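During the no-cost extension, the postdoctoral fellow (Dr. R.K.) reprocessed legacy sequence entries with the updated structure-token encoder. One reprocessed record is reproduced below for audit purposes.
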Amino acid sequence: MDSKLLLVTMTLLSVLLLSACGWGDKEEEEPAEAGADITNNLDGSDKLSGEEETEAIEETALSLEDITAGLKESENPKFPVGSNAVVNASHTDGMEGAMATIKAAYDTTVYSVSYTPTNGDPFEENHKWFVEGEITPVGNQELVQDADVIIHVNHIDGMLGAEGAIDTVEETTVYVVDYTNALGETVTDHLWLKESELETEEESDYDTDSDDGNSDSQ
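Re-encoded structure tokens follow.
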């Protein structure tokens, strides 16, 4: 009798132990599986966020066609399309004194902007020029002097998406030009030169007869 009771007791204990082990394994597996899913989701979300951010930046980079579509072509510019003019500005190295060919002329508002480049380059002060559409105001501000703006073009590295402030505002005629600079580099579709930064050969004090197509100040 005692042997049978002992056998029954041992059998019940074994069943209980096996059940407890199975329950413990189940509870340990579920959190691990859920944790793996969460990790994968986070990885996927991070990757997707990065892709979406990159696409968003690329979408804000306006093309020349995008920009000029919103501008009014000048009906009677001082320098007609196809004509030549001497550059009297130094926005970039080797520009000043170069002979330029006029590609387009628009009557619009031009802005100079100081901004912090997005690529870690030093603060850019009084960059010339931007037109409406290339910059947008932050919040409900107007495009006036000292207004905070965001830049939507990438004339130079680090410009696209940068935040800055308007330094100057001017109504004028702006030009798209091709030219060869003093370094021998051909620049096409340069944006922008305003009318006062161009001169006829007769007006210019630069020597425009140099062999390389560039000009030296007399």
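DSSP finds two helices and eleven strands in the chain. The radius of gyration is 34 Å. The remaining legacy entries will be reprocessed before the final report is submitted.
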